[in-house]
Amino acid sequence: MFEIRGDGQREGTGHQVTAKLRADDGEQLTVDVDPDGSTPVGLGADPNASPTMLLQLRAGTGLAPGTGEHPAVGKLGTAGRECTATLVAPRWALGAASCLAADPSRHQLAEGPPAGATYVVFPGKSATKVDWLSPPPGRDVVLARLAAPIEGITPITPATSAPTGVELTAVGHSRAAVTDADWTTDRQQSARITFTAATPTTLTAESGPLVCSGMAGAPVLHGGRLAAVLSQAGQAGCPGTAGNGSAVTAARVDDLATWISAITTTTADHTWPLADLPATTTPGTAVGAVADSAFTGTGLPLTATAGATWRTGDTFSPAVELNGTTATLAATGPAVATDADFSLSAWAKPAAGGTVLSQDGVNTAGFKLWAESGSWRFAMSRSDVAGPVWDTAIAPAGSAPAGVWSQVAVTYKAATGVAILWVDGRNVASVRHTVKWRATGALRAGAHRTGATSLGGHFKGVLSTLQTWNRLSATPAPNDHDFDGDGRNDVVITDAAGDLWMYPSQGGSGLSTVSGANRVKIGTGWGALKWIVTDWDADGLADVVMKGSDGVLWMYPNRNGQLVSGARKQVGIGWGDYVHAAGNAGGTPAADLFGVNNGNGALYYYPDGGGKTTIGNSGWTGFRIFPADFNGDDRADVMAIDTSGALWFYANTSQNGVTLAGRTQSGTGWSGYKVAALDLSGDGRTDLVALDGSGRLWVYPGTRNGRFGSRSQIGAGWTVNAIG
């Protein structure tokens, strides 16, 4: 008998403790210790009874932690079973499906939460609950998602091959080195195995070292990387079993890198890795259905039509090849709501273009993402009719080269109506779509609906990893002149009628740089007002700061692409004789104000809009100022136009705030120009956008040295009172 005292110093303060015991005759006992008192444990006081040994004393729940030289190799346990698992991502462990299957000999698991409480524990870490299982078809492998990420352990990545005829090492928690009297082993053990035969999904050795229970799922390492996981063993000579020979079988994972990456890196609501090639299927075989790894909600497997075949040996392997004439992959219903926020992503290798993703309505598609003439494009229809009006974003020429893999993605924000097209992580095009409707038909890959019974735009090429989100999966980096939230700085003007207009940047060049056709009226009655554009509230959308005739400064916030007059905020008084401007020199997200006092000629700096500091004592009367980073050092400098039309650059030499160095001249002849400073080209350099007296709009590209490159015309026939 043992007596164990809990750690509680008073009632209700102790921790959960369990004791496990075993007698020589094999009888076992598990006792819950009173957290706040003493508990006798043992198998009785009978002098004729077998001696009792305390095998383990544990506090808390879950698996006991193990020890060993491989921190990424842990124990995977559920009711009545313990196996081995390998950390392959901070929140994912790879093991054997047979460890968790109702019938281990068939290793069949469903995608979803485990049937019972399941935990994984790694050396030096506490046990972590498993909340999701993702098995590939036809293979004794499963990915187990952990309820919390494992920190401080480097995951093991998949190998690129699984060789035979060479010695490989398997590491796990085996009972091979223990006796029948021992209940478990918490120390990692290694088995050196030379596999003699391989299939596309397995490695086998007709005879091998002693591999016992607990090693299911153990990583087979090749060059320190994961080539396979142990699946079956004869177990002859293992404790507690008669065994049946010494053969060993492992499930290969060297060809599952695409599938593992797609599952372990996704944040999507739906993910189709397009990598679940059935175990007995060869390349070129017709695709039947592909699984959806939907971690929440209901999965939407895609069913293929004729012309969709499996492809291997490419960058993404396996992948699905579509023939460009008949092949599509379709779900049983919609993956996103097309009148709400959503995002899409696909890896695609076009051969001759066509539609990668769409979602059916009755007579047309709600959206389509496609390649055409070497360019990626995305469009949303305005109504569910055959031949609808499309709002289309077109990426630059050459963005979709034939025979090259690209990750093409879309984010759509319903509140602003802005759809952004991303290629390989870059924001390459955008479009406004404000006439919304909900397409409730099937998500489709490889074509789009063109009528009630017809499809068109069949994609010819190879696809991998398709994903959808019912939210924005990415947001563009904030810009202080980005009015519509598409990641590009826009041009704002007041016209002769006093209306305030936003001209969205299209990311193009020349006369296609800004869009007059898609301009948006954002205010009226602004003709006599002095105003500037800046992201005052640091929300990623450009606001307008206006000076009234009484010298009061008002900030008009931008809400989803529209100025909200009712929410305007007073941000200054006494600015009647000042020229005001805004930039960011203080290192905080909020904008700073700059002001020229035309009465005394001084230049002032107002960090975050307050706390006036003099940065130019005199001589600034009548200057127009443009605070921005003109030399690429991430500090707001000052570009200024004096009363003679000379353009001057004042570098900011302060690390936090504003200290202006001696000026250098950057140009002449600017008196007749209306000017704004912003990065219109999207290259990270501040440009000058200027309107001349003939109504021509020009951009002067920044060169990050306080000077500008050769100008290019981006507009003609502009009648403008002010520009910002």
Strand elements, count = 57
Quickly name the level 1 CATH class of the largest domain. Mainly Beta
Radius of gyration: 34 Å
CATH architecture of the largest domain: 6 Propeller
**What is the terminal-to-terminal distance?**
85 Å
Number of domains: 4
- Strand residues, percent: 35-45%
Q: What is the makeup of the main sheet? A: 15 strands, antiparallel
At the third CATH level, what is the topology name of the largest domain?
Answer: Neuraminidase
Mean of residue pLDDT values: 90
Overall outline? elongated
Please mark out the parts with pLDDT under 50 across 5 or more consecutive residues, or reply none: none
The helix content is under 10%
Q: Tally the helices.
A: 2
The computed structural class is mainly beta
How would you characterize this protein structure?
By secondary structure, the chain is an all-beta fold. It folds into four domains: 1-60, no CATH class; 66-266, Thrombin, subunit H (Beta Barrel), CATH 2.40.10; 268-279 and 307-469, Jelly Rolls; 491-723, Neuraminidase, CATH 2.120.10. The protein has two helices and 57 strands. The strands form twelve sheets. It has a 15-stranded antiparallel sheet that branches. Strands 13-12-16-17-18-15-14 form a seven-stranded antiparallel sheet, with no helix packed on it. Strands 6-7-8-11-10-9 form a six-stranded antiparallel beta barrel. It is elongated. 46% of the residues are buried.
